[in-house]
Every structure is written in structure tokens, then in C-alpha cells.
Amino acid sequence: MLRNGLIGFGYWGSSLARNFQTAPASVLASICDSDPERIAQAAALYPGSTTTPSANDLIGDPDLAAIAIATPPATHFPLAMAALKAGKHVWIEKPMACSSSEAASLVEEARARNLVLMVDHTFVYSPAVRKIRELIQGGELGSLYYYDSVRTNLGRFQNDAGVLWDLAYHDLAILDYLLDQQPAQVSAHGAAHLGDRHEVSYLTLEYPSGFHAHVHVSWLTPVKVRRVMLAGSKRMLAWNDLESARKLEIYDHSVSAAASPGKEEGQRRIGYRAGELHIPWLEVSEPLQNAVRHFIDCVQTGARPLTDGESGLRVTKILEQAQETAGAGQ
Question: For 190-204, how does the pLDDT look when each residue is reduced to its tens digit (9 = 90+)?
């Protein structure tokens, strides 16, 4: 049985605790949080786990093989580095660090010590995103044209990260998994209405193949939206993560262009094809549960995580580029 420790029992940490406790071959041995109320709650929910307000208690515990970190972003790097130096495998909530230099240091440390470093890119482990990658890899969509995402809701405001690092991170992690290329150009702009950090932002990515990705994220929207459109030369799809019965819709639609005979040079004739709508069967499973079980398997077998430290480093680098173009407020 893999003995795990958890640092952070807040909104996301409580979900991690449940999944580490119920995963096969896993024991949630210890939980840490600096908030007395949260520690009391953790002790009541998991009486078989030791509880402590000190992260050092977990990092220095020789009986723990792995540590999961679900704390504010600014604490990710020092906690993860300390855990790696103590010989622990590390699961880290996104973003893995607040800079690419910190992220690179974590990757190097994990590699030098032959330890698993996995970043919590939860959506990569969702059946819908797995299906989209399958469609892309199989050529079902044809040449990819664009990705358009809207990821908005009212809050949750972060104290040490803007909306790009909080919400756009998800789309960057998804794109990193779906595509075999990195963006050639990154640009972003946003607005801060209530403080020093952007609550609304628009991100554009341009890829060498001509593919474009557009991401709109906001904490200032009255309704929660989790919608992605992906268009290819053969087919198009819509993914609504808030849907249950029709989460992924594949449209047998396409648009083609040909030169118009007898017309001036450069004029084109646009052709439209509208075919059937297909709603694929998707496995019913919790993405976070899939991710946690994948982490445990990687620790036990030595396999490389699907969302390893290098994937987190790539996403961090893109966010830094976006931050440079958007200016202050990230």
C-alpha cells in the first residue's frame, strides 16, 4: 500500500483527500493544513490519518512515499522542492510554480532523484478530452483550424494569481495534451476592475501549422460556462463540460474553398457541407479519480506520468509569455 500525505485541506485538497483515500493500493496516512478548523474537519472525516499544522512533519516523515500539494500557488515551489529533496514522489496542484525557472528546477530535481513529479492537469484525465485526442490522432477532424474556449463563472477569486493562471491554465494544459506542437506566438489582454489582478482575460495562441486557439476566461460572469469549440477541415466538435447527456457533440460539417472560374484572381467559391450530428459514448468516470489512480500507478511502476513536470513547465512558459503581453495584473 502506498502511504501518501496531503498538504492543504481546502476546496481542492478535500477532493484530493477523498480520492487518495479510496484509490486502490493507497492509504491517506497524513493530512496537513495551517487552518485549525480545516484540520479539525480532516480529523473528523479521516480518523485513520494523522493530522498536523506543519508541512515539515509530512516532508520529514520517512514512512510517506508520496506527498500531494494543494496549497496557494506561491507555496507550490518551496513545498515541492522540499518534498523532492526528502525523497518523496510529488503530486502538485496547478500551477506547478509561479515561474518557468522554478518549474524547471522542480523538473531537474525530480529527474536527478528518479522521482515521480506529476502536475494536476485534471481535464487531461476526463473521458471527453481523451476522446478528442483520439479523434485528432485518428485524423477524424482533418487539419485543425481553431480552438475556441469560454471558461467563466462568478469567482472564485485568487489572492496570489490572476484569472489567466487560474482558469486559462486548464485550456493550455488541454492543448498541450491534444497537440504535438507548441505555439509560435502568444498574446493576451485583460482587465482588473476590483483589485490589482485581472479578473477578465483574453488569450490568443498562434501555432506553426496555422492553427489558432482563443481562450476567454473571467471571474466576473453571472453564469458558469465551460464550453470549447474545435474546428477541423473534415469535422467540427463542441464540448460542454457542464452537460451530462450531450457533453461532446461531433458535427459532420466542413467548409471548402475553390477558385471561382471566370472571376477576378483571388476570388473564391465557398462550399458548405452539413452532415450528421454524432454524440459519442463516453465512459462515466471522475477525472480527478482517474488522475490520482494514474499517479499511484506511476509511483508503483516507475512509469512516466501523462502530465509530468515537463508538461507543467511548458504550460508555465506559455503563461509567462501571455503575462508579458498583458502587462500587470496577472
Answer: 998 888 889 999 999
Residues 201-260 have pLDDT tens digits of 999 999 999 999 999 999 999 999 999 999 999 999 999 999 988 999 999 988 877 766
**Same structural domain, 102 and 158:** no
pTM: 0.93
How far is CA 226 from each of CA 13, 96, 165, 219, rounded to the nearest angstrom? 22, 22, 16, 13
- Final residue belonging to a domain, choices 95, 121, 147: 121
CB atoms closer than 10 angstroms to residue 194: 9
Structural domain boundaries enclosing 59: 2-121
Q: Is residue 220 within 8 Å of residue 166, measured between CB atoms?
A: no
In the 8-state DSSP scheme, what is residue 122?
Answer: G
CA distance 242 to 150: 12
Q: Do 112 and 132 fall within a single domain?
A: no
* 8 Å CB contact between 233 and 142: yes
CATH number at residue 79: 3.40.50.720
Look up cell 507543467; give the residue.
312
Contacts 24+ apart (CB under 8 A), 221-226: 221/152, 221/153, 221/154, 222/154, 223/152, 223/153, 223/154, 224/152, 224/153, 224/154, 225/150, 225/151, 225/152, 225/153, 226/150, 226/151
Which of 63, 90, 121 delimits the end of a domain? Answer: 121
Q: Are residues 75 and 115 in the same domain?
A: yes
Question: What domain count does the chain have?
Answer: 2
- Same structural domain, 78 and 215: no
| Continuous segment of H or E residues that includes residue 15 | helix 11-22
Amino acid, res. 205: L
In angstroms, the CA 308 to CA 117 distance is: 6
Grid cell locating 97:
510554480
Rounded Cα–Cα distance for residues 90 and 96 (Å): 11
